[in-house]
């Protein structure tokens, strides 16, 4: 038999390629799509209930084996590893035992034996592992059994030619702009700046719409695939900038106005769209700015003008609205009004809002004991990394549990036959199936992820800050962590320690006690600078990392009431050679966890190529060189998302 593996991002045309090959070669095709709850039984046999009887039918895999057809297995990276191993047994060993007792054999005959037809061909399609697909590493597990091929997106010229086939009447210049825009979006995805890897599939969708409905224009065609990202105003604005740079018009994001009518039904309208599109609805009329009423129940308020902490409304303190005095986040999804809607706020109302904000700031500073000078200092320091904080917070919101609870949900009208309800099925009950799904008792993160950040506060950070701003980057990295994880205590439990020539463990943030306000965060930064300025020379990187592994796991790690997973991240300059420390010593410590804690090192400064040399000696994928603070969200995204199992 012949076996092929096609690896590539979604939407690059893997299915199209296989279909075309089957068409040219006149192959009959069987198709099966896997998912995270696929089982070995589903892969080989398909039970169904017919006239009160359970009938087992051959699956597409078995039919392809028997008849010599091409079997296309799609989304193979989504399947559990035990299902993947079944494919390996079939392809490599030419043997597979079915649930009904029959056996597939490459060379065999006799009762209960299904010989593999000489024309049987396997085509396995899989996305690449890791972010954002979160699938298994299919190539790592069974790639050696297949003839493997990587399917990239087409080059620019080829993509334009492809788009022209789908939209022959659309101007070539427009096709070129579309291809250039999607190419740039893919580059952003590869860098980790956006999560979704916009592919040729989306570009084809746009031009097909233009071909079929030329009167609607490019904006309408783009919205068909981009509207899902309009709920994140910052992401949508970034995507829109790409299209505008390439000469295509795309409006800024708009907000959904959610209301509940008298019948209790949810109504969703879009606000902030341009009048030229025939949409005149808008956020609530503007009035006088105010803080708004406080909702003790903390219900989400969208598009209103009465409640503090709402989103997408008018006049009140909240997020994403217009005319309010200041930002107030109560933990709800943000709905962003358009720039056009914001421009309607009068100068008088804007000044009144600023005055309310100034008074609120004075009250807040007095409450936390922070002077205006200190606040200004922290705010200035924060200004350069606000975008990075927003990026990392977006990533943290997407991180899932490594130990998410999935169980069999019974009494379903579709899925697998539930053996415990066979009698009910014979009696005519339709709800005799079961399927895998999230357990109601424990979906999501049952326990927080536990992270220990180990920051370098040694004398070299202060000494060479004037040379390459390494201490500034360390402080920015610390601020990035504290601000990004703020309010996410139920999902992430983190601590921050430092090390210097004086100590292997200088506590800055304890587990379960994150800094509560800007004053607390500023004090931590000031302490870090002081330790770096006044500590003795020396390096405690190795004992600091070893201690961090012990502390992050804690006593009783792995028991029911402990962390979802444990991660240690060291942030340091690459200054090991000066103290006679070989990188392999650090690598050995990074692999020393007895309980599976993952350990990483991020180097933010280097003399020459020492940082790159160190990372080459560390465990693969656990060392990073990050010379710009703006790269840190990307590194942390890789670290956090690579843990999703």
UniProtKB/TrEMBL annotation:
<feature type="domain" description="ATPase dynein-related AAA">
    <location>
        <begin position="4"/>
        <end position="108"/>
    </location>
</feature>
<dbReference type="Pfam" id="PF07728">
    <property type="entry name" value="AAA_5"/>
</dbReference>
<dbReference type="InterPro" id="IPR011704">
    <property type="entry name" value="ATPase_dyneun-rel_AAA"/>
</dbReference>
<dbReference type="GO" id="GO:0016887">
    <property type="term" value="F:ATP hydrolysis activity"/>
</dbReference>
<dbReference type="InterPro" id="IPR036465">
    <property type="entry name" value="vWFA_dom_sf"/>
</dbReference>
<feature type="compositionally biased region" description="Gly residues">
    <location>
        <begin position="306"/>
        <end position="324"/>
    </location>
</feature>
<feature type="region of interest" description="Disordered">
    <location>
        <begin position="275"/>
        <end position="329"/>
    </location>
</feature>
<dbReference type="InterPro" id="IPR039891">
    <property type="entry name" value="VWA8"/>
</dbReference>
<dbReference type="InterPro" id="IPR027417">
    <property type="entry name" value="P-loop_NTPase"/>
</dbReference>
<dbReference type="GO" id="GO:0005737">
    <property type="term" value="C:cytoplasm"/>
</dbReference>
<protein>
    <recommendedName>
        <fullName>ATPase dynein-related AAA domain-containing protein</fullName>
    </recommendedName>
</protein>
<dbReference type="GO" id="GO:0005524">
    <property type="term" value="F:ATP binding"/>
</dbReference>
């Amino acid at each position: 038999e012949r076996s092929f593996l096609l690896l590539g991002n979604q939407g690059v045309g893997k299915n199209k390629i296989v279909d075309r090959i089957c068409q040219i070669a006149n192959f009959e095709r069987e198709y099966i799509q896997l998912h995270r709850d696929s089982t070995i039984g589903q892969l080989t046999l398909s039970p169904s209930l017919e006239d009160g009887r359970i009938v087992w039918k051959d699956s597409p895999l078995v039919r392809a084996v028997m008849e010599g057809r091409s079997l296309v297995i799609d989304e193979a990276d989504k399947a559990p590893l035990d299902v993947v191993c079944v494919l390996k047994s079939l392809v490599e060993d030419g043997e597979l035992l079915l649930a009904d007792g029959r056996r597939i054999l490459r060379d065999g005959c006799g009762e209960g034996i299904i010989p593999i037809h000489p024309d049987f061909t396997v085509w396995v399609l899989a996305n690449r592992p890791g972010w954002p697909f979160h699938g298994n590493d299919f190539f790592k597990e069974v790639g050696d059994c297949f003839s493997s091929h990587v399917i990239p997106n087409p080059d620019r010229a080829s993509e334009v030619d492809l788009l022209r086939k789908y939209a022959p009447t659309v101007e070539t210049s427009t096709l070129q702009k579309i291809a250039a825009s999607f190419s740039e979006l893919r580059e952003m995805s590869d860098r980790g700046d956006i999560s979704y890897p916009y592919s040729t599939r989306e570009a084809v969708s746009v031009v097909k719409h233009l071909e079929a409905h030329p009167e609607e224009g490019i904006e309408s065609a783009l919205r068909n695939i981009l509207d899902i990202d309009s709920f994140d105003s910052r992401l949508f604005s970034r995507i829109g900038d790409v299209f505008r740079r390439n000469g295509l018009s795309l409006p800024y994001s708009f907000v959904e106005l959610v209301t509940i009518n008298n019948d209790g039904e949810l109504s969703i309208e879009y606000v902030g769209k341009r009048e030229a599109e025939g949409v005149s609805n808008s956020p609530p009329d503007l009035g006088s700015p105010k803080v708004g009423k406080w909702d003790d129940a903390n219900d989400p308020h969208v598009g209103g003008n009465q409640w503090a902490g709402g989103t997408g409304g008018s006049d009140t303190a909240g997020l994403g609205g217009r005319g309010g005095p200041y930002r107030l986040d109560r933990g709800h999804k943000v709905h962003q009004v358009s720039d056009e809607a914001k421009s309607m706020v009068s100068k008088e109302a804007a000044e009144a809002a600023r005055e309310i904000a100034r008074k609120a700031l004075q009250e807040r500073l007095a409450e936390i004991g922070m002077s205006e000078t200190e606040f200004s200092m922290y705010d200035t320091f924060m200004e350069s990394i606000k975008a990075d904080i927003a990026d990392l917070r977006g990533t943290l919101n997407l991180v899932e549990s490594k130990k998410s609870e999935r169980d069999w949900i019974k009494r379903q009208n579709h899925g697998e036959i539930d053996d415990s309800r066979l009698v009910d099925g014979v009696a005519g009950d339709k709800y005799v199936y079961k399927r895998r799904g999230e357990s109601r008792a424990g979906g999501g993160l049952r326990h927080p992820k536990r992270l220990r950040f180990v920051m370098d506060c040694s004398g070299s950070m202060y000494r060479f800050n004037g040379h390459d701003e390494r201490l500034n980057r360390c402080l920015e990295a610390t601020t990035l962590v504290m601000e990004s994880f703020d309010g996410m205590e139920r999902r992430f439990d983190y601590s921050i320690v430092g090390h210097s020539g004086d100590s292997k463990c200088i506590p800055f943030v304890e587990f379960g006690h994150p800094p509560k306000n800007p004053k607390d965060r500023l004090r931590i930064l000031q302490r870090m600078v002081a330790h770096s300025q006044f500590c003795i020379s020396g390096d405690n990187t190795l004992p600091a990392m070893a201690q961090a592994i012990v502390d992050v796991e804690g006593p009783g790690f792995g028991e029911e009431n402990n962390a979802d997973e444990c991660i240690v991240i060291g942030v340091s300059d690459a200054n090991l050679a000066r103290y006679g420390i070989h990188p392999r010593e650090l690598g050995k410590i990074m692999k020393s966890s007895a309980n599976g804690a993952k350990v990483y090192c991020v180097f933010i400064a280097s003399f020459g190529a020492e940082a790159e040399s160190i990372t080459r000696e560390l465990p693969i994928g656990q060392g990073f060189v990050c010379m710009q603070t703006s790269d840190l969200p990307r590194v942390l995204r890789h670290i956090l998302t690579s843990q999703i199992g």
